[in-house]
Specification:
By secondary structure, this protein is an alpha+beta fold. The protein has three helices and four strands.
């Protein structure tokens, strides 16, 4: 499934708007479209943060095809596999 994601991020006081087209797995999209798109949006925001040098970033708004998923994206927490723990 192809979707258009829009983000408004505040990077240390500088607001920026970006949008892009992304593919979401069809089977994930059928289960829960908002969450499936939120995961893709979260990954894209992490990429944007790396591009800005990991500066303090506030997620102001995230939407896909005019569906607001800001809160879902804010609640996503990356999961580390237990085998990769540093101790």
């Amino acid at each position: 499934m192809k979707v258009v994601i829009q983000t408004i991020l505040n990077v240390e006081g500088n607001r920026g708007y970006r949008n892009g087209e992304f593919y979401v797995r069809d089977n994930e999209f059928k289960k829960d479209p908002n969450f499936a798109v939120a995961v893709v949006a979260y990954e894209w925001i992490q990429q944007q943060k790396r591009e800005t040098g990991q500066r303090e970033t506030i997620i102001e708004k995230v939407a896909w095809n005019e569906n607001d998923i800001t809160q879902i994206v804010r609640e996503i927490v990356p999961v580390m596999p237990e085998d990769d723990l540093p101790f």
